[in-house]
Design goal:
Two copies of one chain form a homodimer.
Chain A: E1 2-3, E2 14-19, E3 33-48, H1 56-64, E4 69-79, H2 87-102, E5 109-116, H3 123-133, H4 141-150, E6 159-167, E7 170-179, E8 192-197, H5 203-216, E9 221-222, E10 232-237, H6 251-273, E11 281-289, H7 292-304, H8 306-313, H9 319-327, E12 339-344, E13 347-353, E14 356-357, H10 362-370, E15 373-379, E16 385-392, H11 396-403
Parallel strand pairs in A: 4-5, 8-10, 9-16, 11-15
Antiparallel strand pairs in A: 1-6, 2-3, 3-4, 3-10, 6-7, 7-8, 11-16, 12-13, 12-15, 13-14
Chain lengths: 407, 407
């Protein structure tokens, strides 16, 4: 397996484009409509937000996926089309507009929206935009880049990645674009992620692979604990790599799954790192837990703790807050077996052993925590379960971005 | 029932004092040791943090309450005595020092600490401080004020309240001091609350009344979702009001309970309003829920939503975040029956009806949300359950306070 370029266009037979059509009214330089199209029909699958309040595009995309097939994805930023008048009707109209341009059925188009909740989406500017967007479709790095930009909201950097692997003796490529930032939480939080692959795989197996992958990637990140009405992760597989179609959990499946996990962990980390206003990517590793489930609950509690996030923002080795967050995670454990260390590329420093504070070098700790990417390493002495989760610090900019997002 | 002054000294037979002894090293003007003493033995009860990681004073106070009796409370700020070397030994020594001054058994003294986790508490300065503190004990407003200040950490205002009511034909007084600020969450979060009353009530009944009261007051506030290792709410009842002792759930019990709830809701609201860096007290009322439990889960989810808190900081009527927070609360409900309004002393504005956004006057909404105390009013159309919870907004100052608390 190796990293490659090309994002959502890395795999054979996928073209993309992204432009500004006017859903975002503040800045005409901000792209707001993306289209991704496969040359041929794809096996397709998706995972969605667990929020009870679901945006209209989610209902439409779900319906369009009942046959496990799709050709294209249309997505806009600037308006979430959630709790908004004519929501489903407008989501359907987005699919119809894309289908008319592509020459496929509206049922083969999937749709996503992200942005402000509760306002009617400007369906006219989208319908007028699609005929301008369609001719720009191409399979190139620039095209993936344009699509990645068109789904950004408060994201400060585009999220894009791709990998190449071998499945059944054939070279298989897969890539994706994503948007994240605020509201990211375990179980999907205003994130969109569009994955494409030329692997031949059945709808059942691609769905299974996506579920398994989401569990260890997107569901292990948190920005602010809010989960959104629109989160969606889609995957399209068009089979152009020419491998024997994967229809069961054989070696080919696991080779594919392995690459998909690598790709999605990369994208998930990018989302956590670009959490709204974030200055630090925080990785929390828990080892020595009773089992993986306990390790995951505890790691998530630590990366979700507002006080821990504020301490990391301040480069303050306040490990008491780490223990505290472990303690209210809901898991039972013996605090007197817990060790905590902080680490980054500068080095590692132990700060707590068997639940008691160590005398440590505060200057070194500060230096370690000043790096962009820091790790909170917890060992529990309870068993052999382990888990890694990703989050980010909370900063003045988070408050600024979210204090006046809507107006 | 009526509000009175005097705080923790409002009830007959209670004296208090608070001074600086040196646990807080940064500023000699900041009081850090408090003592509250009853002239006679009291029925006593407490509720504690649900955090698995519990500070040493909690273990000691629990042990000292096994007989349901107490005479005094000693408390310090500046160091939490949690995850710290010699924790229980030092908590015991705090009780012993107070007992020696008072002339009672160490087992009749309750102890609390709040502050930094993981550092050895300066037991010497406390032991040397008690003989200076004891002679200052008096029953006065100033004494309650001094004790209230001595338990503050990042609190910006002291929390103190008292009420007077009639129980069994006798005038009964009760009052309290509290500290809160960060880490406040349903189920106790770095809050300390010391309540005193001259009501005659059995240890069993005072414990029951405290549990019932905490559920609808302290457990319905949230600042940042972190719960601490030290949270404790204590009540001492010395019987000097001369009423017939309450030993069962009769009319006297309910008169007492009513006053206790009023007192504790007042203190809880003060804590929420003084959340670290907070500019707004947010009250969330949920009506029309299936039952009270559903109403409470949903109200807590809304006041705990970082995105909603940031919107209120920005005086932004972003009701989509309210619906979103309801949606990920874990409760099932029909979003298309939900109405949302914002209110304050300026007026009320409906922003969402039956799950859809209304065209509303943005200027009026801004004016309403600019007030110190704002209400998010949710009606659900599911049944007759209702609940009120309190929280605060998240601000630049929250990040500032918590980014460098320890050093």
């Amino acid at each position: 397996m190796k990293e490659i370029t090309g994002g959502v266009c890395a795999a054979q037979g996928f073209r993309a484009a992204g432009i500004h059509v006017g859903v975002k009214t503040h800045n005409v330089n901000k792209k707001d409509l993306a289209l991704i199209v496969s040359d041929v029909d794809c096996a397709a699958a998706a995972v969605f937000t667990t929020n009870v309040v679901k945006a209209a595009p989610i209902h439409v995309t779900k319906a369009h996926l009942t046959d496990g097939k799709a050709r294209a994805v249309i997505a806009n930023s600037g308006n979430a089309n959630a709790c908004a008048p004519q929501g489903e009707e407008n989501a359907q109209r987005m699919c119809a507009a894309a289908a008319a341009a592509i020459g496929c059925k509206a049922e083969d188009v999937l749709v996503c929206s992200t942005g402000v909740i509760g306002q009617t989406i400007k369906i006219n500017v989208i319908e007028e935009g699609v005929p301008k967007l369609y001719p720009l479709l191409e399979r190139s790095e620039a095209a993936s880049d344009a699509a990645a930009h068109a789904i950004m909201t408060t994201d400060t950097v585009k999220k894009e990645a791709a990998v190449e692997t071998t499945v059944g003796g054939k070279t298989v490529r897969m890539g994706g674009i994503a948007k994240g930032s605020g509201m990211i939480h375990p179980n999907m939080g205003t994130m969109l992620c569009f994955l494409t692959t030329d692997c031949a795989i059945s709808p059942e197996m691609i769905h299974e692979a996506l579920l398994e992958t989401a569990k260890v990637s997107f569901n292990r990140i948190s920005v602010d604990g809010d989960t959104s009405t629109n989160d969606t992760c889609l995957v399209l597989a068009n089979g152009l790599a020419g491998n024997a179609e994967i229809t069961e959990k054989n070696d080919d499946y696991y080779a594919f799954l392995d690459a998909l996990k690598t790709l999605c962990v990369k994208l998930a980390r990018m989302m956590a790192k670009d959490g709204e206003g974030a200055k630090h990517l925080i990785t929390c590793t828990v080892t020595g837990a009773r089992d993986e489930a306990q390790a995951e609950t505890i790691a998530k509690s630590v990366i979700s703790s507002t006080l821990t996030k504020a301490a990391i923002f301040g480069c303050d080795a306040n490990w008491g807050r780490v223990l505290c967050a472990m303690g209210y995670s809901g898991e039972q454990f013996d605090p007197e077996k817990v060790d905590v260390a902080f680490a980054s590329s500068v080095g590692t420093i132990s700060v707590c052993e068997k639940g008691r504070g160590l005398d440590f070098d505060e200057d070194l700790a500060k230096k370690i925590l000043t790096e962009d990417e820091v790790t909170i390493a917890i060992t529990m002495g309870e068993g052999s379960g382990s888990c890694t989760c990703w989050g980010c610090d909370i900063t003045y900019d988070y408050i600024k971005i979210n204090g006046d997002y809507r107006t």
